[in-house]
Amino acid sequence: MSAKQYKTVGEEAWKNNVEKVNAELFIFTYGSLVVQLVKDYEDYTAVNKQLDKMGYNIGVRLIDDVLARTGLEKCADFHSTAEVISKVGFKVFLNITPSVQNWSSDGKEFSLIIDDNPLNDFCELPPRAVQDGLWYSNVFCGVIRGALEMMQMQTEVYFVRDVLHGADVSEIRVKLVKVLDEEVPANDE
Asked: Which residues pair with 111 in a beta bridge?
């Protein structure tokens, strides 16, 4: 499939197959969650890890939902995987379409550039949070990592820059570490 076709799949799924939730309610609920994590852990590195862990658990489950809503098959290569993440995954759940840019020469790394992150609405980080490296939307990294692991791809996913840190756009870097072997569970014939 081409990038244009993936975009159409994502738009159709958003229009027809997704129950909508009030965006402001979702954004404020997420913000409350992050505030509670900051209070509980009092360490931004630990908060980043918890957001990633939560996102990972979401991503492991969301991939089945995306495939069921869209009828897409497993991607043929990492380039098509990037397009599906951008044009289908983000579109279906957040109604945004990050651009895929900055491919590495070996084709195993790319960036998702998010111009308008809905989680950033109504949010301003205190200077200490920025200085100490809180990635407010780190849940996205976990979601991507969890979903890709279910598709047999071990990845590293991390924020490079964020609007809440003063950048003009937010950038998430996705690196393919290795393709995992599909394992048959013990005693499964």
From this structure: 101, 173
What the chain holds in terms of domains, given with CATH numbers, is: 3-179 (3.30.1380.20)
Q: Which residue(s) pair with 176 in the sheet?
A: 155
- How far CA 126 is from CA of 52, 150, 159, in Å, comes to 21, 36, 18
| Alpha-carbon separation of residue 1 from 40, 72, 73, 83, 106 (angstroms) | 45, 10, 11, 10, 21
Mean pLDDT of 21-47: 87
Q: What is the pTM of this model?
A: 0.84
Q: Which residue has the higher pLDDT, 25 or 144?
A: 144
What is the rounded distance in angstroms from the CA atom of residue 78 to the CA atom of residue 60? Answer: 18
Average pLDDT over residues 22-47: 88
- CB contact at 8 A, 36 and 123: no
What are the pLDDT digits (tens) for 152-170? 899 999 999 999 999 999 9
Q: Which of 23, 50, 175, 51 is nearest to 112 (CA)?
A: 175
Tell me the DSSP string of 7-63. Answer: HHHHHHHHHHS-----HHHHHHHHHHHHHHHHHHH--HHHHHHHHHHHHHHHHHHHH
- Which residue is listed with tokens 């076709």? 5
Q: Measuring CA to CA, which residue among 41, 65, 58, 77 is closest to residue 141?
A: 58
- 178: helix, strand or coil: strand
Helices 139-150 and 44-70 cross at an angle (nearest 10°) of 50
